[in-house]
C-alpha cells in the first residue's frame, strides 16, 4: 500500500510541509524529557547521526485529483529543488487545489479502501508511531491509546479529528457540503458525555500529568495486561466513546518491552473477554498501530525469510 507507484484518483492523503533541512543528532538522554520526542523527519543520505534531513509537519488532509508535472503551485518553498520529482494535484477540505510534491504526500489507510479487514501496523520509533496514529485515524472514527504515558499522542489525534476537516469525495463546488464535511471532526471534549479519543495507562502519575497537560482530552488509569484491567477498559470505551468501541487502537506499552508482553496486549485487543459480544456490543478495531522495536525486527525477519506474519 505505502509503496504504490501511483496515487489513484480520490486517494485520501495527508499533505506534509517542509520545515527546512536540519542536522540529525544522536539522542541525548539528558536533554529529552520522557514523552517529548519531536516529529518524524524525511531522511536524505545515509541516515547516520549527522546526516542531513528534511523536517516535515502534517498540514492538511486532501484527496488526489490527478498526477501532474506542473512545477508552479507548491507549499514547500523551503525544501531543496527537486525539479524531476512529479507533482500531484490534490484537493483540500474546502475545495481548493494545489500541486504538491509526491514525496510530501502520505497515503491514508482509509476505512473500506484497503483489502484487509484488520490491519496491524508496526513501527519501531516514537515519531513514526505518533504520526501513524494521526494520519490513519480518519474523521468520524474513534481512537484509543494503550500506554498513553503523558498523553501527547492522544491529544494530537484528538486535534487532528476536531480541527482538520474531512475531504469529501465529491468535487469542490458545493460549498455547503464541503463546509459540513470540514466540521465533521467537531467531537466532544473531556467535559462531554462521549468523546472520540481516549488514553489509558496503568500509571496514575502519568495520567495525572496527562490530564494537567491536555485538559480537553480524556484519560483513565487502566492496566491493559490484566483481565480486570482490559474488562474495565472495554466498559469505559462503551461508556465514553462515541462509537462504543474504538476504530483505531494504538499500543505503546513502554515501547520496547519484551516481545511476549507486546503480543499479549495485541491478543487481548483482538480477542476480547466474555464481558462483550462481538458484533453486538463490541467491534474489533480496523487498525492497530504498535510501537515496538522487537516486534518490528521480528516482522522484518519473517518477511525477509518469506514467512507469514
Model description:
It is built from seven helices and twelve strands. It is α/β, with parallel strands linked by helices. A hairpin with a 5-residue loop joins strand 4 and strand 5. It is globular. It starts with 11 loop residues before the first strand and ends in a 5-residue tail after the last helix.
In brief, what are we looking at here?
With 309 residues, the protein is an alpha/beta fold. It is built from seven helices and twelve strands.
Mean pLDDT: 81
Provide the low-confidence segments as ranges.
Answer: 27-38, 40-52, 174-186
Shape, please?
A: globular
SSE series: EEEEEEEHEHHEHEHEHEH
Distance between the termini: 16 Å
Beta-strand content estimate: 15-25%
* Helical fraction: 25-40%
Instruction: Please report the total strand number as a whole number.
Output: 12
Distinct helical segment count: 7
Biggest sheet character: 6 strands, antiparallel
Give Rg in angstroms: 20 Å
Structural class by sheet pairing and helices: alpha/beta
Amino acid at each position: 500500500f505505502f509503496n504504490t507507484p501511483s496515487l489513484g484518483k480520490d486517494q485520501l492523503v495527508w499533505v506534509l510541509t517542509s520545515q527546512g533541512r536540519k542536522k540529525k543528532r544522536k539522542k541525548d538522554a539528558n536533554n529529552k524529557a520522557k514523552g517529548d520526542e519531536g516529529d518524524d523527519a524525511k531522511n536524505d543520505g545515509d541516515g547516520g547521526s549527522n546526516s542531513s534531513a528534511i523536517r516535515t509537519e502534517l498540514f492538511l488532509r486532501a484527496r488526489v485529483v490527478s498526477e501532474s508535472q506542473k512545477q508552479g503551485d507548491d507549499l514547500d518553498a523551503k525544501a531543496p529543488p527537486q525539479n524531476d520529482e512529479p507533482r500531484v494535484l490534490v484537493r483540500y477540505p474546502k475545495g481548493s487545489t494545489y500541486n504538491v510534491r509526491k514525496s510530501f504526500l502520505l497515503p491514508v489507510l482509509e476505512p473500506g479502501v484497503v483489502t484487509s479487514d484488520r490491519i496491524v501496523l508496526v513501527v519501531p520509533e516514537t515519531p513514526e508511531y505518533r504520526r501513524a496514529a494521526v494520519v490513519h485515524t480518519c474523521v468520524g472514527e474513534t481512537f484509543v491509546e494503550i500506554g498513553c504515558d503523558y498523553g501527547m499522542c492522544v491529544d494530537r489525534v484528538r486535534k487532528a479529528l476536531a480541527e482538520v476537516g474531512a475531504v469529501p469525495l465529491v468535487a469542490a463546488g458545493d460549498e455547503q457540503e464541503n463546509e459540513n464535511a470540514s466540521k465533521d471532526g467537531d467531537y466532544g471534549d473531556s467535559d462531554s458525555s462521549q468523546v472520540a479519543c481516549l488514553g489509558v495507562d496503568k500509571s496514575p502519575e502519568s495520567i495525572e500529568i496527562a490530564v494537567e497537560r491536555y485538559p480537553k482530552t480524556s484519560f483513565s488509569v487502566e492496566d491493559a495486561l490484566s483481565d480486570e484491567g482490559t474488562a474495565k477498559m472495554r466498559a469505559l470505551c462503551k461508556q465514553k466513546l462515541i462509537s462504543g468501541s474504538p476504530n483505531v487502537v494504538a499500543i505503546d506499552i513502554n515501547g520496547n518491552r519484551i516481545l511476549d508482553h507486546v503480543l499479549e496486549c495485541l491478543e487481548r485487543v483482538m480477542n476480547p473477554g466474555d464481558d462483550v459480544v462481538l458484533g453486538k456490543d463490541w467491534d474489533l478495531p480496523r487498525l492497530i498501530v504498535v510501537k515496538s522495536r522487537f516486534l518490528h525486527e521480528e516482522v522484518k525477519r519473517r518477511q525477509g525469510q518469506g514467512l507469514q506474519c
